[in-house]
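U., I forgot to send this yesterday:
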Amino acid sequence: MSAPDVSILIVSWNTRELTLRCLDTLAASVDDGTTYETIVVDNASRDGTADALASRDDITLIRNDGNRGFAEGVNQAYAASTAPIVLLLNSDVEIAPGALSVLVRFLREHPDVAGVGPLYLNPDGSPQAFHYRFPTLPAMLASASAPLRLLPPLERSVRRYGMVDDDFSQPRAVPQPSASCLLLRRDRLP
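Result:
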């Protein structure tokens, strides 16, 4: 059997219902024959997550006997994965129908791109701000202090840092994409 196109890596800790909803969105997220494997690391949840996941045959479950933290959980899932493309996916993310196929297609059509993330949407369809430029001192000062944020130059710095006024109707470079749903090429990872 050949390796899947994408390895989906999820770390869960006491997020049973969110994790199950996340997993239930995966099948519809591909609409073009893209194949995937899903590896879920449960960090000793106390809410029945691991038992609920153990009954699924569409995932590989790694059960930790203690909470080893998010980073170690991702590393465990990564070590067990086999695909040339890796999706870091938080357990509370629901992927829209066809969205994973769109992200995979983008990577395939742009060999110079190391990773790609989606446009995040709120339940009402409005965009979420989950992308950032690299921070500047004024942006960090304003972000740390609500009164400073009211000063027009610092308010502009915060808006620029959060890419609030940028046009995301087309793909664009994002210096700091969110890793809550981030598709990466394995050959660009250590």
